[in-house]
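Give me the fold.
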Amino acid sequence: MNSATSNILRFIVVLLLQVFVCNYIHLFGFITPALYLLALLLLPIELPKSVQYLIGFCCGLFVDLFTHTLGVNAAAGTLMMFARPFLVKALNGRKTGDGVERLVPGAKDFPWLLAYVGALTLLHQSVVVMCEAMSFRNFGHSLVAIAGNTLLTSFVILCAEYIFHPVQGKS
């Protein structure tokens, strides 16, 4: 299966899992995994930026349609896709696009993946939670929600990455 077909199939499966399964998981009443970020995080870094922004926006908008959040996930997804090349450059210490970049286990080590997934998930969840709260009145509760959502989502995404992209042993 070629890269475009696998990316499209991954998007469909992950978005359907998000809408029909993950949106109904609420740990402690407010922690919900955002599994659809996996599809955005695994996009090829070589895609044109405008295409990445459009995919991030459309993916977030699709989730917004089923969660009734009026563009919150669309805004957060677009911002996450905007920040992604800068984070990859900072983590790699070089410009993105210097060859083919695979952002999966085996191509990257665990600390790199943890920083990549954790930072972008934190950015996304901060935007989602703060836009939903629209106030600093319960800022402590918002911080707990951001931390909980980030930890759960990062854990689920890293588990999925290692399940579907297992690290091959070196011979």
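The mean pLDDT is 86.
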